[in-house]
Amino acid sequence: MSESAVTKGARKRLTWLGVLIIGLVAIIGLGTATNAGASFAPKLALDLQGGTQIILAPVVQAGTKVTEEQLAQAVSIIRQRVDASGVSEAQINTQGNNNIVVSIPGTPDENTLKLIRSSAKLEFRPVLATSQGISATASGSGATASPTPSASPSASPALAGVDAATQSFYDSLDCSKPFRAAGQVDDPTLPIATCDTNGFSKFILGPVEVEGTDIADANAGTVTTSTGASTNTWAVNLKFTGAGSDKFAKTTGRLFPLAAPQNQFAITLDGYVITAPTLQAVITGGTAQITGSFDKNSSKALADQLKYGALPINFEVQSQENISATLGSEQLTSGLLAGAIGLLLVIIYSFFQYRGLALVTVGSLVVAAVITYLMIALLSWRQGYHLSLSGVAGLIVAIGITADSFIVYFERVRDELRDGRSLGASVESGWKRAIRTILVSDGVSLLAAVVLYALTVGNVRGFAFTLGLTTLIDLAVVILFTHPMLELLAKTKFFSSGHPWSGFDAKALGATSYVGRGAFRVSAAVPAGKAAKASKEANKRQTLAERKAADNAADAGKSN
Amino acid sequence: MSKFSDLGNDLYTGARSFDFVGRRKVWYAVAAVMLLLAIALPILRGGFNFGIEFRGGSEFRVAGVSSQSQQIAVDAVHSVVPESEPLVSTVGTDSIRVQTKQLTDLKSEDVRVALAAAYKVPSSAVASSFIGANWGADVTGKAVNGLVVFIILAAVLMALYFRTLKMSMAAVLALLHDLVITAGLYGALGFEVTPAAVIGFLTILGYSLYDTVVVFDKIRENTFEVEFSEKTTFKQQVNLAINQTLVRSINTSIVAVLPVAAILFIGATLLGAGTLRDIALALFIGIIVGTYSTLFIAAPVYSQFREGEAKYRKAEQKVLANA
Fold first, then answer.
1. What pTM value is reported for the model?
2. Any CB–CB contact under 8 A between A239 and chain B?
3. Of A63, A96, A359, A515, which residue is the least packed, with the fewest Cβ within 10 Å?
4. Does one domain contain both B18 and B99?
């Protein structure tokens, strides 16, 4: 016995659904197996796992606005700082086009908070001495008396203006260990001892000579030769402000004649040396070029740091919220419990209303839940999505909205049955009508989700995101599962015979007692012209797909 | 249950019918009174009860308390800042949330220590935080933007789908009705307006229109070429459509409201003040009002918008003449 086209179509769609689910499982499974950071357990936001959320708002002069680039740069600077302070799993995001949200698991100490709040400080200091970052003293092998490495021949008390404390701090400095207090602020008029950001070298630096705010612009580019031809060497170009040019000219004029390493100046960001170029000339023009072993990316990174680290964006804490870990897990359990109760209620109600059909509802909801769970696991891996309490609420609300699509569909099929059609025919024609309604109503929901996601901030976004995601999944499930299942079930005796428990009991539905679906006969007396107009209108009201199909049919007719 | 499906059958065939369209003056009057109350009552009560996210202030959470007595907290706060009137609520099963006006760092540390002592917990179990007044305003400002953009886009989408601006106008009118009434209820009863409540409020947008679109789809189907009918009028067809989709409307609303009710119940009983309760409450009110307004406002208003069109009036006269 050959299978009917309907059965084949249904099987095909179910297969696609299977492929979709297996595909998701495979991707996440692969990500987990290869230690790529994937996990079948979605990441949780702070309100579900406990922690502190700080919202920072930039303080800017009236009339000025913070640009997206500045904000992104601030985020990356804050991320560097938080990472440096040893807090793991911190999330730092922008919120809207203005604020920065820092989420830290657990309760941060005062230092971490200070660190987050202080703005990036970029300074130019002359290099007084430098040596390798890991000093011999750090090995602790009784070599404490060993002199500071050769690169700093002048590492003696003879260094002008360097007090003994700074000198001894420098001597014992080990760049592989944390040495700066979080949020430490240095006196710009005194020398400091510090390391570069990757811990390769340590320095004694003189007082600040040029400040970050003196930089007008910085960009990365390739070096051009004197003939104007560009080379393959990457460099960072600096442009100073008027006042900055003067200061920089004075500094370079003083430093250039000195012997190495004192002909170097260091650029520090938050007290760490990001670069310490050697001067090759006195720079008076207000522009400078830093060359070295840069590639395209590293030169751009440095240029960005110089450019944005230079911007005096100060942040003020707009809100700070602490959630204890117990409360977090309590919120999660409550959310899950609410979801379970909601699901159960929906299932019970469907059984009362739709009897056997409720099995399709339950099955569809389970499929939707599985896909949603996998999608959230995937998104928390790929996009850093964290499920929050409002996200959980969104998912629970979605149970009802997803089930609504099934109801719209089932009721349509019942309408067709009432018109006296067979179940198989009712499922097909009911589907054609229902899918249009489902498409447009889901379209409205999706529109709401997209608009809210795009235009709002914070929790609203998390909620809008889950709502949009579940709307799409609802659509996929109704097309790839609910409908094909109903098609297949319509073939079974239990359903097609209209068993009282099938939910499609023709008698209970009062079938054939009425024919016409609120339709009416178009009177024969209607003038021909009007009738033609009416059928033109009917054509106009075809859906796009129908029109396309009709056009294709017409084309096929022509070509024959 | 079989009664309910009988009702469905009768509504479908028209054997039984509720006159949604014909008695619209009654529904409009009800809506007018409701809207008036929704605007007047919050004003009389003195405006909305905004949460700390809108007012700004300091917040303390005491975890792991053995007694959730709120007086302890009030006394503890008064011992540091006598003039402050703290808002105390229970959160979860063993936490207390205390909200005060904005305190200085020093004072807030004092309050923290006082609370820890009063509840006999280590001071590390008391988390203090503060919330700037801008935050809630920021969230809401953006939310209002989103709301306006959504309504415009949704109106365009519906106008395109239904091929008539009038349906889209009727749907948006009903949506505005839902929003005003939900907001009014919040204001009148003094429910706390928090960012979570704003989220719930925004979700009404999608839901209210979802419901309306389902009914309008049936109306469009039923009134298609009704101007050529000699038996039935535009008004009657609209009313039939509402009745035919009534069971569907009730079922979809109940199914949508059940999970929301579960969140509301769990949120309010297990968690107390917080995100779940606030989202669910706004949504719970909104879904019920949204279903009501689809049946009693959106559809009758649409009928009123169109039945006056010449082609429908002419057709109606013919039908009446035939009767």
1. 0.70
2. no
3. A63
4. no
